Amino acid sequence: MPESATKEQTIPVLSTDSKTSSSSNVKYRRMKSKLAHLLFLLSTWMGVVVLAVLLIDIARRGLPWLSLDFLDSFASRIPERAGLKAGIWGSIWMILITAPLAFIIGVATAVFLEEYRLNSKWGGRIQRLIQLNINNLAGVPSIVFGILGLTLFVRQINLGKSVLAGALTMTLLILPIIVVAAREAIASVPQSLRLASMAMGATRLQTIWRVVLPYAFPGILTGTILALSRAIGETAPLIMIGAVTFLAFTPSSVMDMFTVMPIQIYNWTSQPKEEFANLAAAGIIVLLFVLLSMNALAIFLRNKFRRS
Amino acid sequence: MNAQFRKPPSWRNVLEKGVVVGLACCALISVFTTLAILITLFVETTSFFNEIPLFHFFTETEWTALFSGDQQKFGILPLIIGTCLVTLIAAAIAIPIGLTSAIYLSEFAHDRIRRIIKPILEVLAGIPTIVYGFFAVTLVTPTLKNFIPSLETFNALSAGIVVGIMIIPMIASLSEDAMMSVPNRIREAAYGLGSTRLEVALRVVLPAAISGIIASFVLALSRAIGETMIVTIAAGATPHLSFDPTVSIQTMTAYIVQAATGDISYESIAYKSIYAVGITLFCMTFLMNIFAEFISRRFREEYE
Known about the structure:
The complex is a heterodimer of chains A (308) and B (304). Chain A has 308 residues and is mainly α. In chain A, 70% of the residues lie in helices and 0% in strands. Chain A has eleven helices and no strands. The longest helix of chain A is centred in the N-terminal third of the chain and has 41 residues, at 22-62. In chain A, 43% of the residues are buried. Chain B has two domains: 9-51; 70-298, MetI-like (MetI-like fold, Orthogonal Bundle). Chain B is built from twelve helices and no strands. In chain B, helix 3 runs parallel beside helix 6 (156-180) and helix 11 (252-261) packs antiparallel against helix 12. Chains A and B meet through helix 1, helix 3, helix 4, helix 5 and helix 6 of A and helix 1, helix 3, helix 4, helix 5 and helix 6 of B.
């Protein structure tokens, strides 16, 4: 907002209504503006209220069920004995595979698109195609990625309903997010740094590796963390590839069956008994705690490394 | 260039070239992802339409794909109607609230309030949809039942409302971006003519940013169409060809989940129907995304 705009102007130039005196017209218009201000304010705070209601309801239901036993027991038909252990470990396994894969492929794609402008006719076309394609992939519903994972990884490549199949599906899902974030970070590196590096005789690769990437790293990291928090919260694609709900063991290799936190929560939510809804709330508290810590970390990194 | 001036290729040159190829391969993975999506959807859908005529798929009014034997009917209309119903309710919730929030944040709010509200909207946008689904079925539906006693346990209304809540942050932040990019001198000119805040917002900034705002609506609704967990949990699993929001319905995404979690063989027609529904969903969201892109490009007001 400009400084001048914070004061209401009172000159009634726009008043064309001849019946009312111009001063009352101005009063009416200003009152209308004030009223709208109030209305818009209320509407904006709706979001805050919803968030508060949601968190309070979940805390009220879930907190009494939250305990160390809850984190360290497997799913059970008896609510008092049920826990989130399989889901927590499944999520950890999945993220440990997804994170490096998505990070490397995503950053490589971003570097290719930002740092190498191919001049040949075909090279330019391929880059435009990749760019267009990433924009479109970002809008594909996650369940469609689930269908892809089921067909390609579970059935064609025959990975079965394994952690690996889930992690690969998730990698493809969050790739566009990481590419977009990494491109933004790389594009914000001042051109003068690249030119200085090259002027001292560095090759293009040396410039990218020692100048561009270190400078863009905080931005890339922030984007990656946010993308990974999306992956942790996703449910639908993993349901599609057959992550099961009742497991009494944690994965010990990438080919093991697995479940993740959101799927256990989904399972508890769909049980008719009230106790299971409370268990789901306890699971949601754990999930939200993980996600909010990741978001806080991302915001912290963004602020710490922000350059003018 | 003459051959005599050319340096012999050193290992560094080879590395430089090799890295470009490696990077290009990584970049092509995303293209292969799209191709793989198209091919998988297309292949299984073709074999689905070998058994079910395309005409029936779009005209039949019942969807009972998971029934046994000859009771199976494959008319996708009920699923599309269910999806549209939820999306319409979501739009009715999210567009007014999202747009007014955007106007407030961009035209009325002090910096201090913006700094409080924007992170809250970001948090809302980052909440997993499974949490929203839980919210819909444990809090929204019971609350609504106090006002509408005939409401079923699973219904389109509460699912739609919660999907709407989910996409509010998206509409608010994208529309706000569009309005913030309107140059300040245009606002100042309107203030100089004696306009009030509201008049500047509604008659100057809103029309100037309208392409970005409409694009944000379309993108958010495309997200609502593809939303899965909320509707799976709260909207039910009974496809209905009606626009009654108080009864249990089924959306396309919810059907895909139901079929995938059910015990069906990979060879059955019910399994193949996942792909037929999937490709319909894919096309709908794809067209909406393209449309949003088109609007924001074609109708953008340029001021520089």
